[in-house]
Amino acid sequence: MIFLATFFVLSAVWPSALSVTRYSIEEEMESGSVVANLATDLGLEPGGLAQREVKLDIFHSKKYLDVNKKTGELYIVEKMDRENLCLAKTTCFLKLDVIIESPLRIFNIELGITDINDNAPHFRRDRVELDVSESATPGERFSLPNGVDPDVGKNTIKTYKLSVSEHFTIEIQTGSDGTQYVDLVLTKSLDREEKAVHNLILTAVDGGVPVRSGTANIIVRVQDTNDNPPQFDRQTYTINMTENSPIGSLVMKLNATDLDEGLNSEIVYSFTLYTSEKTQDVFALNPNTGELTVKGTIDYEDMTFYEMHIEARDKGTHPLLGQCKVVVHVTDMNDNYPEITIQSVKNTVDENIPVGSVIALVGLSDRDTGDNGNVSLSIHQHMPFILNKSSDRPLHYKLIVSEPLDRESVPEYDIILIVRDAGTPPLSDNETITVHLLDVNDNAPQFPLSFYNIRVEENNAPGALISSLSAFDPDLHENQYLVYFILEREIANTSMSMLFSINPENGNLYALKTFDYGPCRVHILRKFTQIK
Ligand SMILES: *[C@@H]1O[C@H](CO)[C@@H](O)[C@H](O)[C@H]1NC(C)=O
Ligand SMILES: *[C@@H]1O[C@H](CO)[C@@H](O)[C@H](O)[C@H]1NC(C)=O
Ligand SMILES: *[C@@H]1O[C@H](CO)[C@@H](O)[C@H](O)[C@H]1NC(C)=O
Ligand SMILES: *[C@@H]1O[C@H](CO)[C@@H](O)[C@H](O)[C@H]1NC(C)=O
Ligand SMILES: *[C@@H]1O[C@H](CO)[C@@H](O)[C@H](O)[C@H]1NC(C)=O
Ligand SMILES: *[C@@H]1O[C@H](CO)[C@@H](O)[C@H](O)[C@H]1NC(C)=O
């Protein structure tokens, strides 16, 4: 299509070249398109050109056009791109001379080339990355690159649009030279933890028909500010730990999380002042890993639970912190032996001590708790003693005589008391109580025989030793010392003491008279009584 806008200024006057014939075409017309009929427009006879020499001289340019000598038509040889020919100039034309010889005539032609919207706006960089601080306040502006559209006039960029965003909008400013500048404006505060990257699309739109546009990706990376404190997932962690856990054992690994990034989310753990020195002697906290380990001896009998207050602090320039509490309940182990305490004891008692008498009072203790501290007391092997609980708290037993005792059978007892707890494995201890029995004169002296038959030779000399009698007493000491004497009795009207005498100390029996054979008598020494 040709918008024929031929301005016939002046009829060409030979040989001068003062008149200028103007044509206007749109850029990008296909080759072969006819721009004008020179023969008609310049007042030449059609067909008259055929015999003449026609030269087309285009200034400073390629040979985009030519003249058909038969028809006199000026036609396009090669497509013209206004932007290529004239860059950003708002008006664009080619100057050409049509030189016809014999006779020589020169026609000046100005071929205006009008813009069509053949270029879409574009951006030199179609991806722009912007770093915006999380703490940026609404209203802050960030420059965006301009779009480029080589077309001119209404075909060049008219406006810009931004993809829908909760946080951003754009504002366009026009410089004094008409250049548009695009600013990205923050409309709502950013939260990196909610959205770290905003992908926006900036569209440059031209005013042509049809409208053309070009886009650039605007990637807004939100720069972290330390606006989140480290957080533990619980306020209190409760842990069971057996006492005597080996040094280095892991109690737990603390893990606070911080939604920020980089140093703002790197955490250092420490005990706060509310954690006692004593507790800090028992537990160690790795500041970097949050590992809580055993450092000292955990003794249930010393502490049944420990409470630690721990804080997590991030490494931001203005650090934020979070806190938690760790409570360690110590589980008792059977690590303490039960103990026997002899509170009072009678180590020597009379052998005739009555059954039921208390020999000793025994206290029991075990520092462990529960089954580990549940103790029972027993007597090793059978003994004539029993135990009777006398009080529960503190635990006391009485050691009581359960059977009559007899020094002459068993003069002393080694009573082994065994205490045992109910832990697994059970622990036991023992204590020996030695009881000596004191002699009581509870045994009568005894002759081996109750009846002695002694033969005496006839005509014995008076005073002769006729026998030696010996009695035995199992008692001790003075209870054992014997004195022999003869019971007064008459034999045939004669007093016994007239016939016999006995050595009180050794029981030697002497005849005081001479006995005749005839009346062969048997003298019975029936009984000796003891002297106390
Ligand atoms: C700790 O021990 C108590 C009983 O002593 C038990 O009820 C509790 O469940 C235990 N807790 C853990 C975390 O094992
Ligand atoms: C801490 O917890 C977070 C989530 O709760 C988890 O992703 C991370 O791996 C944990 N870190 C450690 C060292 O346990
Ligand atoms: C101690 O153990 C005995 C049995 O061995 C049991 O009968 C008693 O209830 C236990 N006492 C405690 C306090 O556990
Ligand atoms: C044990 O003691 C209780 C009172 O404490 C008493 O009633 C009971 O008879 C005693 N048992 C023996 C065998 O002594
Ligand atoms: C008493 O305890 C000792 C060690 O303390 C042990 O060698 C002995 O076997 C125990 N005696 C009894 C009867 O348990
Ligand atoms: C003992 O004496 C009494 C009287 O004094 C006399 O009757 C008796 O016969 C005497 N017995 C002997 C055995 O001599």
Automatic annotation (TrEMBL):
<keyword id="KW-0732">Signal</keyword>
<feature type="domain" description="Cadherin">
    <location>
        <begin position="17"/>
        <end position="123"/>
    </location>
</feature>
<feature type="domain" description="Cadherin">
    <location>
        <begin position="341"/>
        <end position="447"/>
    </location>
</feature>
<keyword id="KW-0106">Calcium</keyword>
<keyword id="KW-0325">Glycoprotein</keyword>
<keyword id="KW-0812">Transmembrane</keyword>
<comment type="function">
    <text>Potential calcium-dependent cell-adhesion protein. May be involved in the establishment and maintenance of specific neuronal connections in the brain.</text>
</comment>
<dbReference type="GO" id="GO:0005509">
    <property type="term" value="F:calcium ion binding"/>
</dbReference>
<keyword id="KW-1133">Transmembrane helix</keyword>
<dbReference type="InterPro" id="IPR050174">
    <property type="entry name" value="Protocadherin/Cadherin-CA"/>
</dbReference>
<dbReference type="GO" id="GO:0009653">
    <property type="term" value="P:anatomical structure morphogenesis"/>
</dbReference>
<feature type="domain" description="Cadherin">
    <location>
        <begin position="124"/>
        <end position="232"/>
    </location>
</feature>
<feature type="signal peptide">
    <location>
        <begin position="1"/>
        <end position="19"/>
    </location>
</feature>
<dbReference type="InterPro" id="IPR013164">
    <property type="entry name" value="Cadherin_N"/>
</dbReference>
<dbReference type="GO" id="GO:0005886">
    <property type="term" value="C:plasma membrane"/>
</dbReference>
<dbReference type="InterPro" id="IPR020894">
    <property type="entry name" value="Cadherin_CS"/>
</dbReference>
<dbReference type="Pfam" id="PF00028">
    <property type="entry name" value="Cadherin"/>
</dbReference>
<dbReference type="Pfam" id="PF08266">
    <property type="entry name" value="Cadherin_2"/>
</dbReference>
<feature type="domain" description="Cadherin">
    <location>
        <begin position="233"/>
        <end position="340"/>
    </location>
</feature>
<keyword id="KW-0472">Membrane</keyword>
<protein>
    <submittedName>
        <fullName>Protocadherin-10-like</fullName>
    </submittedName>
</protein>
<dbReference type="GO" id="GO:0007156">
    <property type="term" value="P:homophilic cell adhesion via plasma membrane adhesion molecules"/>
</dbReference>
<keyword id="KW-0130">Cell adhesion</keyword>
<dbReference type="InterPro" id="IPR002126">
    <property type="entry name" value="Cadherin-like_dom"/>
</dbReference>
<feature type="domain" description="Cadherin">
    <location>
        <begin position="448"/>
        <end position="517"/>
    </location>
</feature>
<dbReference type="InterPro" id="IPR015919">
    <property type="entry name" value="Cadherin-like_sf"/>
</dbReference>
<keyword id="KW-0677">Repeat</keyword>
